Amino acid sequence: xxxxxxxxxxxxxxxxxxxTLFSQKQKTLHELSVLQDKKTQALKHLQIDQQLxxxxxxxxxxxxxALFLTEKKVASYKQQxxxxxxxxLVLDHELNxxxxxxxxxxxxxxxxxxxxxxxxxxxxxxxxxxxxxxxxVKQIANLLEKKAKEIKAVQEQxxxxxxxxxxxxxxxxxxxxxxxxxxxxxxxVAKKAKLTQQxxxxxxxxxxxxxxxxxxxxKTINDAIKTIIQSKRKVEQKLQAQANLAIQHQDQEKISLYxxxxxxxxxxxxxxxxxxxxxxxxxxxxxPIVSLWGSKTDSGPAQGITYAPPSQASVRSPCSGQVExxxxxxxxxxxxxxxxxxxxxxxxxxxxxxxxxxxxxxQKGIIIGRMPVWSGNQDTGR
Length: 382
Hints:
Blueprint: H1 11-103, H2 106-114, H3 116-123, H4 130-200, H5 202-216, H6 221-248, H7 252-265, H8 272-277, E1 289-291, E2 296-297, E3 300-301, E4 306-307, E5 314-316, E6 321-328, E7 334-341, E8 344-351, E9 353-354, E10 361-362, E11 367-370
Antiparallel strand pairs: 1-4, 2-3, 5-11, 6-7, 6-10, 7-8, 9-11
Helix pairs in contact: 1-4, 2-3, 4-5, 5-6, 6-7
């Protein structure tokens, strides 16, 4: 290294300054190396988190599909048992009626066994002809045989139904045991998926929580959605301003950081969820539809689809997207606002339990909540 100066210096002075500059250069290089290592490690951790999140999401989807299928079978078996009970009641009534008809002949049969001659003579209008009496006995025998066959046929149907009913009960109990285990498994996987996402996207979760708190204060669902949109735009604008300032200062680290945060906030607006949703429709919940979109109601045209699901029925995500709100809201019970892309949102309300949280990314088909506990299907969910 060459050092030039107009000032006359000593030998020791000419060595001190180059060493200082060299030391500063070495320190700067070391700091850059440490930053680069941190960045590399951060990217590795991010990739690991993303892979783990993807793996857990797939496990969550598999567990959701298995649980939903089991619930569907349980609901089907319960309906079949109701139908069997109805058929058994009808057959019991028919058997009772036929038995009463058959019982009318019992006094005559008893009389024939005790006083055959007197009975036949009386039955043949005092005619001495034995043929009339024999014909009468034959008619009675034919009639009794016919009634006996009818009663036997009903008894056989009833026996077969009772046997089927017993088999259905056994299968239902097995399914309910399976269902209980699947619910526990789903709960464990759902918690892991949520924690993993929160760890890898902590910033998104914090922003989402703040936005959801403001949305909770809204008076209507539409107002809550407007609050979410406006709040996220403000956050995006603030981040963009910080990114522009970093660009002016040519601070690449901050530029990357702010761009990453902007992408995380605006992820739900890529419409990827809508593309996935268009591939195949899924059943949101087991149970019949009570009213469709636009149906007449006391408060005007319906703004959604209303279902009558069984007690504690699982509710699945209609698309892949970001959960912008998850919690209780006004008189709608537990509610979820799901952004499926390009500001297309699904609102699912009336649930008793939620299995996803605000800020979480929900994959299409995963179970996101459960209906309340009730008896019968008189209550409806939206």
